[in-house]
Design brief:
- The chain has about 625 residues and is α+β, with helices and mostly antiparallel strands.
- It has 2 domains: about 270 residues, Distorted Sandwich (Beta-galactosidase, Chain A, domain 5); about 250 residues, Aldolase class I (TIM Barrel).
- It contains 11 helices and 38 strands.
- Strands 9, 10, 11, 12, 15, 16, 17, 18, 22 and 23 form a 10-stranded antiparallel beta sheet that branches. A 7-stranded parallel beta sheet has the order 29-28-27-26-25-24-30.
- The N and C termini lie far apart (about 70 Å).
Length: about 625
């Protein structure tokens, strides 16, 4: 009997959360529902993996592959379990969609060698969360396999092999439409996150996290295998060891709402906050100034004060024209012949408790950032909106994240516009409040787009969507283009800042203070916060509809939108405190309302057992503000 047990022990081994048998290893999530199995296939020494969720296949056998200094790490390998650990902690973000974040996982690192080489040159780390799997490659000290540093990564073509009939929400770039396509005949690579619907009913999202010192990786179809996706690097990466690649993330869920509910996974895969004092980081709402005059800026500041908007944004300042000397800075030029007194605007804003954000283009940021930041701090600027930034390459990825770190040194917040999409860096440097990387109102999307974004783009993190209300057209640049108009209703726009999370929310994007004529529903935006104590995805289907509830102190806010189809829905309030009674104020499209926005307001008493049936016409929305009734 003792001999038999010994033989069995030689064939299989269970260490902590890793099950090993011959050349196979199983890594399980803490709840054991999600399993990744690694296998070293012989005789080619090819490292492959599969992923299963509750016994259902997520990924079929897929190969690991990364090319460093022209050597592809995908075959002729040996593997050895090197280290493992588990973590179960709760951390408090500076701000977020919830006040506390759970970070719970099992982690295993494997050493990899090429053939009979005795030196370890590369390792693979796998983290198993209940919400998904993540892995990355780690490069250690120089070995004869590579030659002299720097190491050059030219390809990272790890496979993601799916069952037949899998479909993906493909999008070419950060600001293009999503299209549901099978895994064949794609018109191009797809940006990330890439969300897929599996034939067995599961949903998965392929993402990257902690992409701060690397090249952006999108996804493309394998030219060699059907139903197979591989990474598509923007360009090569030159780096000195030791270093690690970004995390490759495979989120898995039963439904799209669960994917969105679990989007803290991206933050958990980043380093904790590295800013000591964060009191100066203040999320809030912003309104941009459109008149290009000092008088107009003051009117906008007055509007901000009246409507509890924390920031004035000077978007139309031409940062390219900035010239100054160290002792007597000149006033920047503006795209206007009207007088624009920067210092008077800043003085007036500060006197009224309103902060100022400046839009600055890539050129001055690149050439003058180290001089601009102390100047902006001296002026009292709250934040910079980075414009027309270069994204994708290793060089510009490093530049951008180092620029945000420099902003933190001078207590300046940041908002990155254009093609940049987040990978969780705002956990490490929370002065990066938000970023664009979204098909927002500047692209005049329809309601189908808006109902798709929560389950795709917003898995990666907050987005600066730019919400509109009164003006249905871009008054600045429409040029007679009849397609440049807002294609959703006022109530739809009213609900969007509750559906879409961003610590910095731009409101009234195409409006001026004179646009407001006392419409009562604006009270929702007046008192709506931009960061939350809790968030719950109540229901939703990609591209069709979504309803999200967010909590701030004792109040709850619910945003609901539908796509270009009419819809009947029922909201449940089961998330409310069972011992309290509440008053719900409902803001909804109502053509019978005489105002030009046609938004009706109604009130009713509710508790946790209440239900609310709603009927939505195409492209409309609804917002609900829930307050506890005093004395209960």
């Amino acid at each position: 009997m003792k001999k038999i047990i010994t033989l069995i022990a030689l064939c299989q081994l269970i260490i902590g959360n890793v099950y090993s048998q011959n050349d196979k290893y199983q890594i399980k999530s803490p709840d054991k529902r999600l399993v990744m199995e690694l296998e070293l296939e012989q005789p080619q020494g090819r490292l492959a993996y599969t992923v299963n969720f509750k016994g259902k296949p997520v990924l079929l056998k897929s190969k690991f592959s990364i090319t460093c200094n022209n050597k592809a790490w995908e075959s002729k390998l040996s593997i050895k379990l090197a280290a493992q650990r588990s973590q179960d902690t709760i951390w408090k973000p500076v701000y977020g969609e919830r006040a506390l974040v759970t970070d719970k996982y099992n982690e295993t690192t494997f050493d990899l060698r090429k053939e009979d080489d005795k030196e370890i040159a590369i390792s693979l780390t796998v983290r198993a969360y209940d919400q998904g799997m993540a892995f990355r490659y780690n490069f250690t000290e120089t070995s004869k396999i590579y030659g002299l540093p720097p190491f050059q990564i030219t390809d990272e073509t790890t496979e993601f092999v799916f069952e037949e009939n899998t479909k993906a929400w493909h999008t070419l770039r950060a600001q293009t439409l999503h299209t549901l396509l099978p895994l064949k005949n794609w018109p191009s690579e797809s940006d990330r996150p890439l969300v897929l619907q599996l034939s067995n009913g599961l949903y998965t999202a392929l993402m990257e996290a902690q992409m701060t010192n690397y090249a952006r990786t999108k996804f493309k179809l394998s030219p060699e295998k059907s139903n197979t996706i591989v990474g598509s690097m923007y360009g090569y990466v030159d780096e000195l060891p030791p270093f690690s690649t970004p995390w490759r993330v495979i989120m898995v869920a039963n439904d799209p709402g669960e994917l969105l509910q679990n989007n803290d996974l991206v933050l958990n895969l980043n380093k904790p906050c590295e800013i000591g004092n964060t009191a100066w980081i203040r999320p809030g709402k912003a309104m941009r100034e459109l008149s290009l005059s000092t008088e107009g800026a003051k009117k906008t500041i007055d509007f901000c004060v009246k409507h509890h908007i924390q920031y004035l944004d000077l978007t139309f300042w031409n940062g390219d024209d900035l010239t100054y000397n160290a002792t007597k800075p000149d006033i920047p030029k503006w795209r206007s012949t009207k007088p624009y007194d920067m210092f008077e605007i800043i003085r007036y804003a500060k006197a009224n408790g309103v902060g100022v954000w400046l839009y600055v283009n890539q050129r001055p940021l690149t050439l003058q950032l180290d001089s601009l930041l102390p100047l902006y701090q001296k002026w009292g600027i709250s934040g910079i909106k980075f414009g027309f930034v270069h994204v994708g390459s290793h060089r510009w990825t490093v530049w951008l994240h180092e620029a945000i770190q420099k902003c933190a040194k001078y207590e300046i917040m940041a908002d990155v516009h254009d093609e940049y999409r987040p990978t969780g860096f705002s956990r490490t440097y929370p002065n990066l409040l938000t970023q664009e990387g979204v098909r927002g109102n500047e692209e005049y999307p329809d309601a189908d787009n808006n109902a798709t974004l929560p389950f795709t783009r917003y898995l990666a993190g907050p987005a600066d969507y730019t919400f509109c209300y009164y003006s249905r057209r871009d008054l600045i640049g429409s040029g007679g283009n009849t397609n440049r108009y807002i294609k959703t209703t006022s109530a739809h726009q009213l609900a969007l800042p509750l559906v879409y999370y961003s610590p910095l929310q731009y409101l009234f994007w195409y409006d001026i203070p004179g646009s407001y004529r006392g419409e009562p529903e604006i009270e929702l935006w007046d008192y709506m916060p931009t960061v939350w104590d809790d968030t719950k995805v109540l229901q939703g289907e990609i591209g069709k509809y979504v309803s999200i509830a967010r909590k701030s102190k004792e109040n709850w806010f619910i945003g609901t939108i539908t796509n270009t189809e009419a819809r009947e829905m029922e909201l449940s309030f089961s998330f409310l405190n069972k011992n309290k009674q509440y008053e719900a104020t409902i803001y909804a499209d109502d053509e019978s309302v005489a105002t030009r926005t046609h938004v009706g307001i109604s009130k009713l008493k509710i508790d946790w057992k209440s239900k609310l049936k709603i009927s939505l016409n195409p492209s409309v929305g609804q917002a609900v503000w829930i307050k506890p009734i005093a004395g209960n």
